[in-house]
Each structure stands twice: as structure tokens, then as C-alpha cells.
Amino acid sequence: MQHKSDMQSRIKLHPVHENRKNTAEKMESTKVMESEEMQITNVMEYEEITKKKLPKMVYDYYASAAEDQWTLKENQHAFSKILLWPQILVDVSHINLMTTALGFKISMPIMITPIATQKMAHPDGEFATARAASVEDTVMTQSSWATSSVEGVASTGPGIRFFQLHDVSPGHDNEGDGL
User: Fold this and answer.
1) In sequence order, which residues have a C-beta less than 8 Å from that of residue 4 and are 6 or more positions away?
2) Are 93 and 124 in contact (CB under 8 A)?
3) Measured between alpha carbons, how far is 178 from 165 in angstroms, rounded to an integer?
4) Which are the contacts of 18, defined by CB distance < 8 A and separation ≥ 6?
5) Taking the alpha carbons of 158, 165, 122, 149 in that order, is the dihedral positive or negative?
6) 81/87 Cα distance (integer angstroms)
7) What is the pLDDT of residue 79?
8) In whole angstroms, what is the distance from residue 44 CA to residue 58 CA?
9) What is the pLDDT of residue 43?
10) pLDDT mean by block of 10 residues, the chain; 179 residues
11) How far apart are CA 143 and CA 163, in angstroms?
């Protein structure tokens, strides 16, 4: 007696059924890929993925935010108010998200804010971030607490770059400083 899989391989399927078979195989291979590497479907999943990829000490540093985490909470609250309204049967073949930031033309209303000590997360740190911002034609803001020099980041190529500046002089209250 032949195994079911041997019999199925000898049967010529109608093209519609063949497509279904291919789709099922693709779905199965996608499941395998997803189990090996997580697929990001929303912003909130970044935290879960980051927690799995970074050493605990590094993750805890980034996740702790600053001091009382007021800015983190405010950002989360503001982000929760943004609603996307799906539009049906609208031509989206020519979308233009270009805007300006402090007079610089950028491709979209998204910029990279200052992130301290990026080389704790990846050996290329700020260099990789600068290259990504350049490719996407948007702003990268380098942190005062960067693990790469301003000159080093500038040497990665063209791009719009801002710098976060803190006044760390004695007796100065640094709360709210930065650009």
C-alpha cells in the first residue's frame, strides 16, 4: 500500500488546487520563519523583541527611561491618542509624506530622537542609526551621551543631523534640557 503523500505527489492537481497547495506551503514556511525570528506587526512588540535579544543589564538600562519616567509615560499617553482611520477604495499609489523640520526637507514626519549609548545594543551604534536615517532621508539627533563622536557619525555619509546638548555645569538643574 502506498503512503498518502506518495499518492498525492502523483496526482495532477487543477491549477486552482495547486495554488492552494502552494499557499498552504508558504503559510507553513512562514510559521517556521516566525518561530525562528519574530515578525513585528505593531510598535508595542518592539519592547518584547528587544527584551529577548539584549542582555538583561542592557535591556534594563534602556527600559528604565530617565529618572521618574515622566517623559516615557507622557509619550505613551500621547501615542495612545493617535488613531489611524482606514480609508476604503482610495488611490494610495502616489502618497507624499514629505515635510520640513527646522527648515530641512525630510521624507516623512518621523525623526530619530537622541538615544544614549547605542553601542551597548549593537557594535555599530550611532553609525548604523545615522546610515539608516540617511537612507530614509530623515533627521537623526545624536545624544549628548552617545558612544560615538560627532565627527565619527558625520563621517558615515550625508544626512541631516541634530545634536542634543545638555548643560552639565555644576549647580545647573538639567531637567528639561536638550533639543
Assistant:
1) none
2) no
3) 5
4) none
5) positive
6) 19
7) 86
8) 19
9) 75
10) 44 42 46 55 85 92 81 88 87 93 96 94 96 96 95 95 88 57
11) 6
In whole angstroms, what is the distance from residue 78 CA to residue 80 CA?
A: 5
Residue 114: left if φ>0, alpha if ψ -120 to 50, beta else—which one? beta
The reported pLDDT for the residue numbered 3 is 47
| CA dist., res. 128 & res. 107, Å (int) | 19
Q: Please give the pLDDT value at position 35.
A: 46
Contacts of 131 (CB under 8 A, 6+ apart): 156, 157
CB 139 within 8 A of CB 104: yes
**Cell numbers standing for residue 50:** 528587544
The pairing of beta strand 104-106 with beta strand 99-101: antiparallel
- The C-alpha cell 476604503 sits at 88
Residue 80 CA to residue 43 CA, distance in Å, equals 11
DSSP the chain: ---HHHHHHHSPPPHHHHHHHHHHHHHHHHHHHHHHSPPP-STTHHHHHHHHHS-HHHHHHHHT-STT-HHHHHHHHHHHT------SS---SS----EEETTEEESSS--BPP-S-GGGT-TTHHHHHHHHHHHTT-EEEE-TT-SS-HHHHHTT-S-EEEE------TT---TT---
